[in-house]
Amino acid sequence: MGIVCLFFCPLTTNAQYQEANRFEYNPNYTELLITVYTEDGFKFDVRALISEDNIMFLNVEAIFNVLKIKCLPTLNGLKGFIENETNFYSIDYNKKQIKVGTKSINIEDHTLEELGVKYISAPIISQAFGITFTFNKRSLTAKLTASFVLPFMKQVLREKNRKNILNLQRKPSIIIDTIIPRHYNFFKFGSVDWGLNTSQGAGNNNTSINLGIGTELFFGEADFSMNYNTKSKFDINQLRYRWRTVNNDHKFIKQAQLGQISVNSISKLDGQLIGASINNSSTEIKTASGFYNIINTTEPNWMVELYINDVLIDYTQADPTGLYQFKVPIVYGYINTKLKFYGPLGEERSVERTLNTPYSLTASKTLEYKLSTAIVQDSLKSRFAKADFSYGITQNLTFNGGLEYLSSNPNGVFSSFANVNFQPYSRLNINLSYIPDKRLISLINLNLKGSGFLKVYYLKDLDVQTNKSADLKINFSKGFKANLLTVNYNRSMFESFAFNQVDFTFSSTYKKLSINSSTYMNWAKGNPFQLNTQLLLSRKLAKNLRLSTSTIYNLVENKFNNLNANIQTIILKTPLIANFNRDIESKAISFTIAAIFDLPFSRVGVSSSYNNNSFNFSEYARGSLLFGDGFKNVYVGKNSSIGKGGILLHPFLDLNENGKLDKGEKKVLLSSVKILGAKAVISKKDSIVRVFDLNAFVKYNIEFSAIGLNNISWRFKYKTYKVLVDPNQYKHVFVPIISVGEVNGTVYLKSGKTLREQRGVRLQFYDKEGIKVAETLSEFDGYYSYLGLKPGKYTVRVDETQLKNLNYKALPKVHQVTIKVSEYGDIIDGLDFTLSEKEPKKPKE
User: Fold this and answer.
1) Among 695, 643, 726, which Cα is nearest to 222's?
2) Largest distance between two CA atoms of the chain
3) What CATH code is assigned to 741-837?
4) Considering just the CA atoms, what is the radius of gyration of the chain in Å?
5) CA contacts within 13 A on the Cβ side of 26
6) Measured between alpha carbons, how far is 522 from 497 in angstroms, rounded to an integer?
7) Phi/psi-derived region of residue 24, left when phi > 0, alpha when psi is between -120 and 50, beta in every other case
8) Which residue, of 30, 75, 122, 668, has the fewest CB within 10 Å?
9) What fold characterizes domain 643-738?
10) Residue 134 to residues 35, 107, 111, 671, 711, Cα–Cα distance (Å)
């Protein structure tokens, strides 16, 4: 009996007595555990006091510690800084005052104290610190927004950027509830890209028109585009066309392509390839261990995107000198690596560059192939074919070889090649490539500890018809904190001389100042020694204002060659760029002013430039159309939609649980959706969640959370989806939401004539098939509740095993309940149980 009392009877302590008195003394406030979430999907739990009129009071110290805001306790309150180190704040609970900078706020009527913990109302926190909490009483959640970037979010974004590549490639370890497969169509019109560019100046007027159409044709993606320029006659080379299909579940042919194809050829081709190619390599990215580094330059401040097999892997912004770098994972299978570049004003000059990546491996004991045949669009209409084979001898050793045919090759129509890729350990990759009578290449990539990379490239030219004998390139890079150091040495060896080039680049960032220093030197037999240095300084003057200046100095001749200044700003949401350049030697001056306007249906840009005593003007506009449900719905955009796809999510309250949006069932507006590698746009107008700019034939994971619902009784029927994107169209995905019921009651313990509430009793819930679907425990006052029962018949009972161990019985033994279909969830109250000790069995006479 003593064990029974120890199990059931709560120990009364002085602290509990004080807590009970506290709530009795202040009954107008309820203490609750609230889930706080941000617009980016991050969440945390916090205890709050909720008033009768739903005003939330929060513990500022606890909140600031979670958000990583500087917060130090003082004798009478708290102190620290908010947003930046110069914006100090203090909270004095004795004086009932908050000071932020020069601002002072009286908090006398906006504070509470509970068990020695100070609470401040959410409206005052918003007024003082710009951190707003919007409380939702139905879901017991609060949405957090701030007028500045929270330190917590900065830390999360830093970690996300550091691990972005891994997060985008390694499939998350989540359980997929439902899979939405590919939908096939013989023909379906999908998307249109359009663009118009004009320029005027010095009698050189020009107009070009770009038009592209994306469809689904013969159950695959079909893309067509045309570029027309008024200064040239139209010819067939201005047309672009491609058909392709991808099926990663097929065993022998996973990818097929017709039309204009891309092949890494051995021979030099003088035109576009028109033909077909097939391979059995999956487009799904499977990473091996190890990385290699890409460091290069583009235009200053341009955005650079890295794609592997048409999947966005990472992106970065070039520094004010145009320097950018990527840490790229080594992957299995044939891969197509591309870089895309976008100007800060969304310039039409965005380009796509295909990289020849020698580091890919093939999985152990796996044979992969790629077969291509085509006609070269040159003057001879040359015939071309290539067969590529790759076999994984082990997980770290891959052999690649094949044969290439080119009918117009004067040195023989056939060329063979062989390649070995060896990765002895994760930080070292060795690649050897041999083409008979042409070249021998060795490439070593070493990933050093501490963000360092070393690459050594050596090419031996075997072609007797050239006077070049060899190339040697050594590249070293080292990153530390906000600094990057790169050193490159190139040596080209010819029969009579060698050409040498060395460059050092140091890039650093300190607060709002960016510094980049580059030194270049080259020398060769019979040529003067060249030594130049370029220094660039860039500083963020205000929130949307940046000034960059640069100069080039010739160290040999001891003189400046060039001066440049650039200003970027945003006025009324319109980006503006002004650039000034002076060539000191020729005394030539040039400047450019440009602006871009983002309209709801397109992007428009204008620029004016002065050079060589003449003015030039240019204008462009571009946009896209994506059609859904035939021509019933048209979605406009500013970026290209050809070769892309989208997802339309339709969340709805599925009252009859048939998974279909029936008449009378309403759509549900969500507050958040998590999609890896994409952004969801939630429409308040029609409750549809639109996901744009997705890559066709790629599977995307979509996660839903209960915090995205505005009713505590609503649940997602499936929390996770895997959706395969169809080419050049939007895919409709219906997301059923069910309304669940709540059951509650009180458990009592009867001892003699005494009846009191009992905690720690296990309640179990069984469906009509007799399967246990849930269980819960009674609380300190005997009360129990469970929210989450789907409509249907259930049996509620006390755990029989627990009763048997304690020699107790329950009255009644069970409760039979029926959860009815209800929009806001059915509630059944008063399912009470009374426990009492079983009478001992009488001994047999």
Assistant:
1) 643
2) 126
3) 2.60.40.10
4) 34
5) 13
6) 13
7) alpha
8) 75
9) Immunoglobulin-like (2.60.40)
10) 11, 20, 18, 12, 15
Alpha carbons 508 and 535: distance in angstroms, whole number:
12
DSSP string, 113-135: EETTEEEEEHHHHHHHHSEEEEE
Q: Which of 181, 217, 194, 188 is nearest to 628 (CA)?
A: 188
Q: Give the Cα separation of 242 and 223 in Å (integer).
A: 5
At 109, which helix (H) or strand (E)? Answer: none
In sign, the C-alpha dihedral spanning 252, 258, 261, 267 is positive
The number of helix segments (H) and strand segments (E) in the chain equals 7, 62
- In the chain, the amino acid numbered 3 is I
| Residues in Cβ contact with 841 at an 8 Å cutoff, skipping those fewer than 6 apart | none
Of 523, 532, 590, nearest in space to 560 by CA: 532
β-pairing verdict for 323-331 and 827-828: unpaired
Query: Which pair of structure tokens corresponds to residue 702?
Result: 């979509």
Q: State the Cα–Cα distance between residues 583 and 550, nearest whole angstrom.
A: 12
Tell me the range of 298-312, 403-417, 479-493 where mean pLDDT is highest.
403-417
Task: Give the list of residues 6+ apart from residue 617 with CB closer than 8 angstroms, or none.
Answer: 199, 200, 201, 606, 607, 608, 609
How deeply is 20 buried, as exposed, middle or buried, from its count of CB atoms within 10 A (0-12, 13-18, 19+)? exposed
Domain limits, the chain: 24-150, 189-243+610-638, 247-493, 497-598, 643-738, 741-837
What integer pLDDT is reported at residue 358 of this predicted model?
67
Task: Give the distance from CA 342 to its chain's centroid.
Answer: 18
Which two tokens mark 98?
């908050």
Q: Find where tokens 């209960």 sit.
A: 706
Q: Name residues whose C-beta falls within 8 Å of residue 377's C-beta, 6 or more positions apart in sequence.
A: 237, 271, 272, 273, 274
Q: What pLDDT, on a 0 to 100 scale, did the predictor assign at position 106? A: 92
Q: What angle do CA 700, 701, 707 make, to 5 degrees?
A: 135
Q: Quick one: tokens of 200?
A: 């005027």
H helix or E strand, kind and range, residue 621: strand 614-628
Whole-structure pTM value: 0.69
Is the backbone peptide bond immediately before 812 cis, with ω within 30 degrees of 0? yes
Are the beta carbons of 621 and 600 closer than 8 angstroms? Answer: no
Whether 548 and 515 have beta carbons less than 8 Å apart is answered as: no
Q: For residues 118 and 127, is the Cβ–Cβ distance under 8 A?
A: no
DSSP string, 239-301: EEEEEEEE-TT-SS-SEEEEEEE----SS--SS-EEEEEEE---SS--EEEEEEEEEEE-STT
Looking at this protein, which amino acid is placed at residue 331? Answer: V
Spatial CA neighbour of 678 closest among 627, 637, 644? 644
335, 308 contact by CB (below 8 A) = yes
Q: Distance of CA 77 to CAs 84, 92, 97, Å?
A: 20, 5, 10
Same fold, 643-738 and 741-837: yes
Check residue 608 and give its pLDDT: 92
Question: Would you say 808 and 836 are in contact if contact means Cβ atoms under 8 Å apart?
Answer: yes
Structure tokens at 467: 């006077």
Alpha carbon distances (Å) from 626 to 194, 387, 692, 728, 839: 12, 37, 10, 7, 76
Helix (H, G, I), strand (E, B) or coil at 347: coil
Would you list the DSSP string of 370-398?
EEEEEEE-STT--EEEEEEEEEEEETTEE
pLDDT digits (tens, 9 = 90+) for 473-531: 999 988 776 678 889 999 988 878 889 999 988 888 777 788 888 899 999 887 888 89
Cα 259 from Cα 276, distance rounded (Å): 6
SS (H, E, C) 703-752: ECCHHHCCCCCEEECCCEEEEECCCCCEEEEEEEEEECEEEEEEEEEEEC
**How far is the C-alpha of 409 from the C-alpha of 266, rounded, in Å?**
11
